[in-house]
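User: Look at the shape:
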Amino acid sequence: MKYDIVWDDSFNTGVEIIDTAHQGLMNCIRRMVNITNDKDADEEKKRWVCEEGIKYFKNYAIKHFAEEEAYMRSIDYADYARHKFLHTEMREITIPELERQLNSANYSEQTVENFLGACMGWLTGHIMIEDRKITHGDLEAIEPQQDREELQQLIHAISQTIQDIFALEVQVDDENYEGENFGKALYYKLTYKNDQGEMLHAIFAVEKPLVSNTVGKMLFITFPIINKTVISAMQQISQQIMRSLRTYFAQADSSFSLCEDEMLSAKEFRREFETGTSQYSLLFQTDLGYFAFCIRRP
């Protein structure tokens, strides 16, 4: 199946050079998704298209980061240093590690799908959460409060983030979620650690219809099955969401850094709630499924 793309203006930042680059990067991913999903394509052709496409994507991304950073400097963007750090991390850590995996596995179908999903998820989250702040402002730049007020600010921030990324209305369903089953879902755990060895877990559960119908929305693709591309995309989106929300946790300060990113089975997910304590544990409902977000101490 081949997928066509029609750009949605809701993804625009309003800066032509940035928006054009975003369209180019997503078009590159779409072409590679098309060839990997073409059951009639010759395997040698698939390998060549993927190799050349990945080279193009990498070079285009590096050029785009430089142009976007130049624009931010030209307007004295207040969050420039942090935004540049995210670019550097993607360029110098994430992409090289994905390339290492591709070469080590001789461009296996699984590693190609992982590469595409990781890039698609990172771009979707980065554009909708970070890039749109450049021209739209940080609507949630609020000093964290304590207790009930802090919880309500967090709920509002997560709701807004889900709406931005998935283009869906959302409402909180449970403010004290304890891991109850709500249907077939993908489960992720991000583990953070500080210099004192303290651990913090961010746990996500996303119902599969919500994933399959929205993870590729920037490419205008609805994935009929949950494959490695979709799983990798959601892992990256989860990391982007956590980055955007960390200022709402008094305990999750800058000394905590991500040290592990893993998928959980349904049984492992529910087992997380048997020990430790929850700082926050929230369940949200959308028209396409549920989304759980939990911050826990082991």
Observations:
- The mean pLDDT is 82.
